[in-house]
Amino acid sequence: MDLAALFTYPIIQGPMAGGPTTPALIAAVSNAGALGSLAASMLAPATIVDQVAQIRALTARPFILNLFVQNTPAPSDADVDRAVELLRPVWSSLGWTSLPRPASWCQDFDAQFATLLAVQPAAASFTFGILSKEQVASLHAAGILVIGTVTTVEEGLVWQEVGADAVIASGIESGGHRGTFIGRQEDANLPSKQLWPAVAHALAIPVIAAGGIMDGVDIRAALELGAVAVQMGTAFIVTDESGIHPAHRTRLLDGHGHTRLTRSFSGRYARGIENRFMREMAAVEEQCPAYPVQNALTGRIRAAAASNNDPELMSLWAGTGFQRARPMPAAELVRTLFNEMQQA
Strand pairing partners for 232? Predict the structure, then answer.
């Protein structure tokens, strides 16, 4: 099976960790002829099994399962104490006398990978790192297509070398986290319309375009620049089936503000709508520990903000085109995008 066999329309719903990619959303997208993606990076193996079962109860169509490639860190107590102190202005504003420590820094990737092999989705995509040739071979042996996420031509060539079936080329306009794993994240700053053709020209495997794609005109432009399909996150995050928090949805749909990159929420650069958390941490964000330690430390803060319906302390992930996001059922969005693409 090749990538094109997985969809009728060359549209992939992006994996958005933290709740937006519900089984209902993934199934609706795939049933409509596009390709849904489950963001499983923050899910325990048992939860992955359960959510895959829910998806399969709703659709017989293919879907993607996405994981972050990562090692479990072991920060020193002193490093954690410094990170907690950097966050003091934020957690103290909640009336807390201390910041609760997380029970773990992240899910165990090896256990997640074993679960991926067991549940056998049609395809798996990977962000933040790269697999070994042996891992890619094991996925292929299980009948799973392998898709890497890249932000530079160099990263694309490395994924091709280990045997990936395709890559997602994620431009600087992308919402949330991108997949930079070679060099400094700050240096992987090509705009989408420069990155897509550069990667497509350099690689022999298919390229999926991501970053700032919001309508059918954008899709047509990406295909003309060498992509075989597009991946869209922000466009799908406000669909009816999305699990996005209502306060996040409201901020996206009111169209106010602007997005920028920050590493203060997670320890990796990610794009979101600027809010008080980002402004208060801006001066010290370069000192924050790397993902996933910072992400785990801010987890309780973000959870409290969600409980309080306070978007100022939430990670409001969004791409640069968020003002063009359209609330509607996911299947209707797929049809709308395809019709726009045909007319472009």
Answer: 13
Residue 35 near residue 7, CB atoms below 8 Å: yes
d(CA 66, CA 64): 6
Q: Single out the residue of 298, 284, 291, 244 nearest to residue 269, CA to CA.
A: 291
pLDDT of residue 344: 86
- Identify the sign of the CA torsion 276, 87, 261, 321: negative
CA angle 336–342–200, rounded 5-degree value? 105
Identify the structural domains of the chain with CATH numbers, from first to last: 1-70+106-241+329-344 (3.20.20.70), 73-104+246-323 (no CATH)
Phi, psi of 87 (to 5 degrees): -85, 0
pLDDT along the chain (344 residues), means of 10: 92 96 98 98 98 98 97 96 97 96 95 98 97 98 98 98 98 95 95 98 98 98 98 98 97 94 97 97 96 97 96 97 97 98 92
The four Cα atoms 55, 127, 129, 135 give a dihedral, to 10 degrees, of 30
Contact present, 214 and 309 (Cβ < 8 Å): no
**Count of all residues that appear for the chain in the document:** 344
Q: Which residue matches tokens 């295909």? A: 223
Distance of CA 115 to CAs 45, 89, 120, Å?
6, 39, 8
